[in-house]
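Researcher: Sequence of GST N-terminal domain-containing protein follows. Predict its structure.
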Amino acid sequence: MTDAGGLVLRYFDIPGRAEITRLLFTIGDVPFQDKRIPKALYPHLKPKLRLPFGSLPTLEVQGETYGCSLAIARYAAKRVGLYPDDALDAFRIDHFAGLVHDTMVTLLVVLYMDGCAVLRAKRLRRARRRIPQLLEHFEAEAVGDGSFFSTISWLDVYLFDLIHNVLLRFCNVLRIPFDKYTKLQAIYKTILCDPKIAAYLTRTEGPGMMAFRPRCTTTHS
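Model: Prediction complete. Tokens:
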């Protein structure tokens, strides 16, 4: 995008912990520079980057650089109107979004970890026991029709991110069945079938993810 409105998002060239912000800016049609850094180049580029907490992602806003993926995502949610003004409503959403975040980080550490194969296998076994319990909790608490609460919020986008970029993308590794969570499937499809999200995924993903996408019969503006 040519007019990025002073927003520069920097992260690796993977979905990871920055994808929620990319998705939010996309669904809200907020222009930003999406700076994707190849992992192999990161050690050489790191000394030149402004990293408030020593790691990516970062978001540059009008020349000032901020860290913390969850704080960045909340800022993006507010920018695009998917974060409620009411304090209690925001608290309810953050309550579940924090759980999504913790789940996401835990799984990403396992999926992208290098080194000890025994430790990775142990953490995978633990995840296969724990994640279905969390999914059942989300399924039981969801009350909306195609959204977690009565209206779409950034929580729905974050759930989509967890499902699409972790549970489905790494389904052969995680082996966590998803077909019984009908409410979560409806939330996933709501976000997937948004025209802006669909166009973004077509532009940024390879053909390998197409097999996981359900057919969109309706669209959401």
